[in-house]
Amino acid sequence: MGFLTTTFNSLLGWARKYSLFHYPFVTACCGMEYMSAACAHFDIDRFGAGWTRFSPRQADMLLVVGTITQKQAPVLRTVYEQMTEPKWVMAIGACAVSGGIYDNYAVVQGVEAVIPVDVFIPGCPPRPETILDALLKLQDKIQKQDQDWRWKRRGS
Amino acid sequence: MSDRLRKSARTESMLLNMGPSHPAMHGAVRIMLELDGERILNSEVEVGYLHRGFEKTCENRTYFNLLPYTDRLNYVSPLINNVGYVLAVEKLLGLEPPERAQFIRVLMSELSRLADHLTCLAAMSMECGAFTVFLYMIQAREFLWDVIEATSGARMTASSIRVGGVRADLASGWEDSLRKAVAETRRVLKDVRGLLDKNKIFLNRTRDVGVISKEDALSYGWTGPALRSTGIGYDVRKARPYLVYDRLDFEVPTGERGDNYDRYQVRMREMDQSLRLVEQAAAALKGCAPPVRAADPRLEPGEAIARSRFRRPEESVRLSPTLEGAEKDLMPGILADDGRSVVPPKEDAYTSIEGLIRHFKFFMKGHGLRPPPGEVYQAVEGGNGELGYYIVSDGTDRPYRLHLRAPCLHLLAALESLIRGRYVADIIPTFGSLNIILGELDR
Amino acid sequence: MEETRVLNELRTRFPGAVRDALSLAGDDVLLVEREGFFRLAEALKAAPLDYALLLDLTCVDYLARSGCLEMVYTFLSLGRNHRLRVKITLPAGEARLPSLAPLWKNADWLEREVHEMFGVDFEGHPGLRPLLLYEGFEGHPLRKDYPLRRRQPLIPLREEP
Q1: Is there a contact between A40 and B135 if contact means CB atoms under 8 Å apart?
Q2: Chain A touching partners, 3 or more CB pairs below 8 A
Q3: Which of B38-42, B73-77, B290-294, C116-120 has the lowest mean pLDDT?
Q4: Which residues 119-148 of B are in CB contact (within 8 Å) with C?
């Protein structure tokens, strides 16, 4: 029985990691590198994550691209809470990771203060290859994590 | 629908929020709409979702340190912001960079302007449904960024334009890579013209949509391609020439009606002019090439430091390739020789005490780049219009006040009147054609 | 010279308003009193002076130095290709100025920004509310006495894990 569950677990992980729908929460300069990563030259679609879903309900990966200011933080929290499980978050760029070069009254020092983050991508802005490398690491994480099955009792 | 029904039916307007996170809102702008069906009765634009405290931060950084902050203002054409800031500080200092640096600055500015217009039209077309145009233009942008990256190390936010000149000379092999980029951009522009110029759907979405009159455009303080689409040919590069634009040959395209289609056409034709400027700058740079070294009598750094313990070595030092462009014999071409405002060449800093002291004093807190007290306003032609820096200096190494005249603020202030009475779908090309860059607007 | 003609004309029409005229780093600057400012601005906009564009409107905080805020306006005349800077000194307790929104439409947003950042009040403005900052933000960030890192979060932020 254990063999079947682990196989099913990895099958589910395989399916989830190669069919990520991402929601690009683009605010600032990193958005340009995100656009480059998503377009023909550096193609994110090769890794299965090409479809941009512009609704939190339809997406399972939230890409926080760019600076999050204090004014934007409630919006980010709302969007994150609107997403359904399972969901993963990538913080792209130095500003999303830790506030970047902006340490002042207006900028949240890292998206982790607002929502939980799975992958942090440093860079100002990160090269598209870095974003793709981070996507591969997230895919590893998704494959290895304990998949959340509907019929599995929580906490057991 | 019968007249009787229309008169007696109650119409209540609906409030709709095009929220700060929206695919068609480039960045984070919130438009709240009052709708009657699909027609917009009233709207309100809310900005500030990317207010990063640029002006306050700059009061706490030295003139040299705050250069990367200027890159991140209009982040699609970062080097133009650099140029504006650096020209303002040079105006305060009374410094004149060497000619080769001027041409490199022009080249970088025009490459940035091309990237800006490509991104704007790519996003606008994608939102109208022309996804192919988006992919083509972003690919052309990659080739332009390759040229910038080979020179400065960064694709986008390069910060390679410094007070006194540029930080690095053009990388070896730049001519081929630039030629390829220009050819690719020309090909893309030709393809896009074929796809969009007479495209019925595109015309329907953009012709006579978002129309603004000349008087309104002036009253809102519009500049740049948006103002030129109404017919007023104001371009800072022609009106107040800076760098070497007065020696270069280019035209300023204008539109007629001030609608979205004219803004699209003005940007396309401006890209042609930018390509001309790039070619002229490249020809001038090939003309005044840096001196070619015959043999390579340079010393290895360890050897030079060891020798300099006794006396200053006569030969120049071979630096690692990553510091190319900072070499002493290339410096006269690209950086003015001014002890107060320019980093000394690394050979001097590593091998002589004067160079070391100069280097140290440049970066020391309280010393370094200190313009005399005064104020200056310097404007350059950004991708969206007149990008102005107003700097108040009090003689210390930090600006007392640095204010950016953001062209996008004035463009967006007019959006509410541009979309009144139109459909919700008309917001998308209107907003896209204005090219609102939040980094610049919110600062 | 261009600015002398402008200056002379303005001085004759508004003897009390124009205090001084300078040329700083190549730009022409007019120092103006607050009382006659609105009529001066109307004259600048109308023909023949024809400063059709209000390029910029900002403020500088000299409170620690001389106890006043200084408003800086930049106008552009397309016909004569001339940029004019107008500066008005406002004492700390009376940071009020007539709004230019009836004359130039972009003054609306520019004045909202100066109001929230510096606390200058604009009389006659259609609706002074925050532009870049959010409701509930207290203080005027671009004043020198506001510390750079004083944060006022809108939502409670999570602790570091």
Answers
A1: yes
A2: B, C
A3: B290-294
A4: none
How far apart CA A150 and CA B333 sit, in angstroms, is: 68
ipTM for the complex shown: 0.91
B197-229 per-position pLDDT tens digit: 898 999 998 998 889 999 999 999 999 999 999
Which residue segment(s) compose the domain that C51 sits in?
A: 2-95
Scanning every residue of chain C, which has its alpha carbon at the shortest distance from the alpha carbon of B89?
C25
In this complex, how many residue pairs, one in chain B and one in chain C, have their CB atoms less than 8 Å apart?
93
**Three-class secondary structure of residue C76 per DSSP:** strand
**Which pTM does this prediction carry?**
0.89
Express each pLDDT in B55-110 by its tens digit. Answer: 999 998 889 888 999 989 999 999 999 999 999 999 888 888 888 889 999 999 99
Residue B400: per-residue pLDDT: 92
Q: How far is A25 from chain C (nearest CA, A)?
A: 18
Is B239's Cβ below 8 Å from some Cβ in A?
A: no
Residue C119 in domain: no
**pLDDT per residue as tens digits for the range B18-65:** 888 777 657 788 888 888 888 888 888 989 899 998 999 999 888 988
Closest-CA distance of chain A to residue B136, Å:
8
Each residue's pLDDT tens digit, C72-94: 999 998 888 888 888 999 888 88
In a domain, residue C28? The reply is: yes
Residue B426 is classified by DSSP as G
Q: Which amino acid is at B171?
A: A
Test B216 with C148 for CB contact under 8 angstroms: no
Residue at C43 is within a domain: yes
Task: Report the alpha-carbon angle A96-B148-B266, nearest 5.
Answer: 90
Task: Give how far the C-alpha of residue C101 lies from the chain's centroid of Cα atoms, to the nearest Å.
Answer: 12
Yes or no: domain A18-142 corresponds to CATH 3.30.1380.10 = no
The single-letter code of the amino acid at A85 is E
C-alpha B188/C-alpha B180 separation (Å) is 12
Q: Distance between CA C90 and CA C55 in Å, rounded?
A: 21
pLDDT band at C46 (very low <50, low <70, confident <90, very high): confident
Residue from C145, B57, C159 nearest A103 by CA: B57
Q: How far is A93 from chain B (nearest CA, A)?
A: 13
A96 CA to chain C: closest CA distance, Å?
14
Q: Domains, chain B, ranges and CATH?
A: 3-46 (no CATH), 57-290+370-442 (1.10.645.10), 301-363 (no CATH)
Chain C CB contacts of A81 under 8 Å are none
For residue C16, what is the domain's CATH number?
3.30.460.80
**C127 within domain boundaries:** no
- Domain ranges across chain A: 18-142
Which residues of A touch chain C, with CB atoms under 8 Å apart?
70-71, 73-74, 77, 103-106, 108, 112-116
Domain count of the fold of chain C: 1
Look at residues B433, B441, B407 and name the one whose alpha carbon lies nearest to residue B212: B433
